[in-house]
Amino acid sequence: MKPQPSANPSILMEKLVSLCKRRGFIYQSSEIYGGWNGFWDYGPLGAELKRNLRDAWWKQVVHWREDVVGLDASIIMHPAIWKASGHVDTFNDPMHSCPACKKLTRADQILNIAQEQKWYSSLSQTLTKNGLDVPKLQKWLQREAQSQLPNLLAISGPEFSVEFAAKTIVTLAQQITPFDLLRLLACPPGENPNSVTPCPHCGAPLPPARPFNLMLRTHTGPIADDSNLTYLRPETAQAIFAQFKNVYDSSRVKVPFGIAQIGKAFRNEITPRNFTFRSREFEQMELEFFIRPDEATELLTGKLTHYSPELDLTEPQPDWAWDVWHHYWVRQRILFFQTLGLHEGQHLELYWQKPDELAHYAKATVDILFRFPFGTEELEGIAARGDFDLSQHQLHSGKSLEIFEEELKIKAASLPESDRQKFKDKVIQNWGNSGKSAEQAAAFCDKLFTGCYIPHVIEPSLGLDRLALAVLSAAYAEDTVPDAKGNPETRTVLRLHPSIAPIKCAVLPLLKNKPELVAEARRVFLLLRQHLVVEYDEAGAIGRRYRRQDEIGTPFCVTIDFDTIGENGREKKGTVTVRNRDTLKQERIPINQLVPYLLERIAIAPNQNS
Ligand code: GAP
């Protein structure tokens, strides 16, 4: 799904990227060597933020549920896994390779990339309501195009005529975009401009797109030949399918249940872009939630409930069909984002993929889109993948990935033969409607009557780096607050949810040169450090220290002042002020109540997840 990004990268994005570097959230990989495109490093605060996001996901998806267990699989696996999953043959993006400037461009991103180029906005100024401003275009060709699009036919080919382009635009009699105009400027007279795709980097006509496999390759062992070719995993999901039977046999799980994994994934993206949004190395947080095929549910419970908007999705029910499970997981994921301060409507949108957009294995897919500064784009995908993955691995490995349910066998045996036949006839008819043979349907039912089936799966799949970028961009704000003297001052603040803020609390002695204040502040710092990620800071004026903590998203600042050490009497001795980053309110709290005070305000309560 490709929603349109905003025409220019926003100023907010520039500010965010700059803050991320300045404060140690995210750096360009290998920066001292000029950087390495598509790779990013997380600095001290970024590492904490990612860790908090990982923990929040793991807690809510694994620890707070009784029906999900975890897995931590290797990145490099048997290459047959990627053949079975379809990645070797079909994990491709269409790519144009420019014969002139040698740059590679993903075919479906040409327009987005063109919009990000300098020439785009200047070319748009040559288009008027009535068509083309020819003198302006001529100037543009002599200046901008000469330097930015040197291989454009209109400047490199003598046969091109600006008058022809102007006439064509007039005859089109409709609003055309700067990219349509570029097509005209790249098109030899007499040819159809729609058949020309100009390179957004140099203007040369591009040859047709070719499929490009996105998996990163390597070799295992000392000899780098085809027999040792392996892949860095492009998703964490396949390891879950490959280890499904081991997990099922070695844990006390019963369908419906899920296996979750967090880990690195690698894709040789043709055009990594938008900061960390599309990277070549990234981290995924994936859940494969295994459910009964609808036929098994119906056989076991005697009914099958399909989704309707009034259905209560709070507690899973045994008669839920796959589409209800799918909706259930969409809701669970929205609740998860809510706990991090990302809300549907304000930050998130749901996009239900249309039938022609679905991957061949998916019965339905919902994209949870986030309003990034550069456009509304996918944050998480939730796909109903049927039994595609387990069936493929069963087929390719020759190992059974079916499971056995005694209850199902007993239930089938308790039915009269005529009811079993009726059940079978219904399945044959239903499967026939989706193009499957009567023999396949009958064989499936015979298996089911013995208690055996291959589970189906619902897969919520979230990118950790995209989540980090989403929470950072949602949190970024500039507001006006009073400085130490009460004068208005602009501050940059990251309004991160306290549970994911890298530093939970800063401990600040009012003055650095007062040993009693410093000693007490160190004592409070060492106390808090046992429970929270805390920072001690004594450098500079208190106002400047607050601003720095605001900018890195620290939700609380604890200040040790003269009241704390009893210089102003006994009444407030042993108390500190706690400043709230968002409300700017300061509360006086006894030191012995600080830990519960802060923990209560930082935690995500488990009951928020239902
Ligand atoms: N197992 C299903 C799967 O991998 P996907 O839509 O290709 O599906 C899932 O990826 C999520 O992984 C995306 O929604 C996104 O958050 C993240 N992701 C995918 N490609 C990425 C990239 N190149 N850079 C950063 N995150 C990426």
Descriptors:
5-stranded mixed β-sheet, flat, binds glycyl-adenosine-5'-phosphate, 7-stranded mixed β-sheet, 22 helices, alpha+beta, BirA Bifunctional Protein, domain 2, 610 residues, 4 domains
> Tell me, what is the CATH class of the largest domain?
Alpha Beta
Which range does the strand content fall in? 15-25%
The CATH architecture of the largest domain can be given as 2-Layer Sandwich
Largest β-sheet summary: 7 strands, mixed
Summing up helix and strand content along with how strands pair, one would put the structural category as: alpha+beta
How many runs of DSSP E, i.e. beta strands?
25
Estimated radius of gyration? 30 Å
Question: Could you explain the architecture of this structure?
Answer:
This protein has 610 residues and is α+β, with helices and mostly antiparallel strands. The protein has four domains: 280 residues, Bira Bifunctional Protein, Domain 2 (BirA Bifunctional Protein, domain 2); 120 residues, no CATH class; 50 residues, no CATH class; 100 residues, 3-Layer(aba) Sandwich (Rossmann fold). The chain is built from 22 helices and 25 strands. The strands form eight sheets. Strands 3-11-12-18-15-14-13 form a seven-stranded mixed beta sheet. A five-stranded mixed beta sheet has the order 22-21-23-24-25, sandwiched between helices. Helix 20 links the parallel strand 21 and strand 22. Helix 6 packs antiparallel against helix 7, helix 6 crosses helix 10 and helix 17 packs across helix 18. The longest helix is centred in the first third of the chain and has 20 residues. The two termini are 29 Å apart. The N terminus is likely disordered. Bound molecules: glycyl-adenosine-5'-phosphate. Glycyl-adenosine-5'-phosphate binds next to strand 12, strand 15, strand 18 and helix 19. The site of glycyl-adenosine-5'-phosphate has 19 residues, from strand 12, strand 15, strand 18 and helix 19.
